[in-house]
Amino acid sequence: MQTDSTLSPETIAAYRETHFHVLSEQPFVLQIGIASDALTALQKARHVECSAFITACNPFSQALDESTNAARQAALAQELKQRGLFYLVGLGQHPSNQWPGEASFLVLGLSREAAKVLGARFEQNAVVWCGVDGVPELVMLR
């Protein structure tokens, strides 16, 4: 865990507890620090060694209305398409349901650095990145 974040320990803990739902043909859930056989199999099938779970919703944890978040997600999707990246729709949801679930994408083949740049561009506090081992990591951006 990165210790130089400007975010509160409670916010970081909430990110670590969030369930990252991948809404594929065979849905699965990613959790920080827990290896995902489904993700490993998907990465292997798509011939990539990494992936990132990212959203454009609610920049810097400031809740936006549904239509604004949808427009932000559409802009992110357009950028991913322009880059030729394969992605699946997802939803980041804390198990307490006290914060609305955030539309997200699991982007296959996105390097850690590229995920950080994209997350920063869309004003996110963090992204989730997974290497070849299929273990999701919380990568703090602030």
Concise account of the structure shown:
This protein has 142 residues and is α+β, with helices and mostly antiparallel strands.
3D architecture notes:
The protein is an alpha+beta fold and 142 residues long. The protein has one domain (9-140). Helix content is 32%, strand content 25%. It has helices at 9-17, 37-45, 66-82, 112-121; strands spanning 19-22, 28-30, 51-54, 87-93, 102-108, 126-130, 136-140. Strands 2-1-4-5-3-6-7 form a seven-stranded antiparallel beta sheet, sandwiched between helices. The chain starts with 8 loop residues before the first helix and ends with a strand.
User: What sequence of helices (H) and strands (E) makes up the elements?
Assistant: HEEHEHEEHEE
The strand count comes to 7
Q: Mean pLDDT score, rounded? A: 94
**Helicity range:** 25-40%
**Structural class from helices and strands?**
alpha+beta
Strand content: 15-25%
Overall spatial form: globular
Low-confidence region ranges = none
Distance, first to last CA = 13 Å
Structural domains: how many: 1
Number of helices: 4
Largest sheet: 7 strands, antiparallel
Strand order of the largest sheet: 2-1-4-5-3-6-7
Measured on Cα atoms, how large is the radius of gyration? 14 Å
